[in-house]
Amino acid sequence: MGTKHIITVARQFGSGGRDIAKSLAQELGIKFYDKELISLAAKESGMNPEVFEKIDEQATNSLLYSLSMGLYNFGNGFSAVGDLPVNDKLYILQHKMIKRLAEEGPCVILGRCADYILKDYPNVISIFINADMEYRKNRAIKYHNVDKKRAEQIVNKTDKNRANYYSFYSGQKWGQAQNYDLCINSGKMTQGDAVALIKTYVNLLDK
């Protein structure tokens, strides 16, 4: 079963959102983009992907200055991009990649403000995956090798980084229901059920 839609998935840390997104792409028979966006951005810029890995989904304050000085316009290319800090270079390159991939055809894109970047595309479905703290702490300890004593702190810090990144580059609030088409509490169901629920929603919109 395929789809004509681009599906963007934002997720709280420890919610299993990445696994759900990847499984969804497999079930639909379409491409899945997560860290691949870093590789593509590195290839485009000629930079070492390890540099981008360290600052992925983190914002800086420098872009505000660049925008205020008119050095960069998201709608009109990459003027003065060489002068920007690496965080902003990565965002700009990923912004370009996400649009390019969306134009190539159906796929699932994880995080990185994809829902905002593609907000004007008619065939985009935006999903947000959340869960309660206890569920996310347990997953962080089990799957991300997070120290048990610091699990809640790390979950909160990672979410704060993602929220700041999203807010900084989109001007919207991360995780707020009105910014997404479908919000799912992954702690209330199995991964398979979450994928099935999203597939049912996608099928409805594909009709």
Describe this structure in words.
This protein has 207 residues and is α/β, with parallel strands linked by helices. The protein has a single domain (6-206), classed as 3-Layer(aba) Sandwich (Rossmann fold). Helices cover 51% and strands 12% of the residues. The protein has a five-stranded parallel sheet with strand order 2-3-1-4-5, with helices on both faces. The two termini are 13 Å apart. The model is unreliable at 65-80 (pLDDT under 50).
Strand/helix succession: EHEHHHHEHEHHEH
The number of distinct structural domains comes to 1
Q: Stretches where pLDDT falls below 50 for ≥5 residues?
A: 65-80
Oligomeric category: single chain
- Tally of DSSP helical segments: 9
CATH-scheme architecture: 3-Layer(aba) Sandwich
Biggest sheet descriptor: 5 strands, parallel
CATH superfamily: P-loop containing nucleotide triphosphate hydrolases
Relative strand content: 5-15%
The radius of gyration over CA amounts to: 17 Å
The percentage helix is: 40-55%
CATH class: Alpha Beta
Which strand order spans the largest sheet, edge to edge or round the barrel?
2-3-1-4-5
Count of individual beta strands? 5
List the helices and strands and how they pair.
Elements: E1 6-11, H1 17-28, E2 31-33, H2 36-45, H3 49-55, H4 62-68, H5 86-104, E3 107-110, H6 114-117, E4 124-130, H7 133-143, H8 151-170, E5 182-185, H9 191-206
Parallel strand pairs: 1-3, 1-4, 2-3, 4-5
Helix pairs in contact: 1-9, 2-5
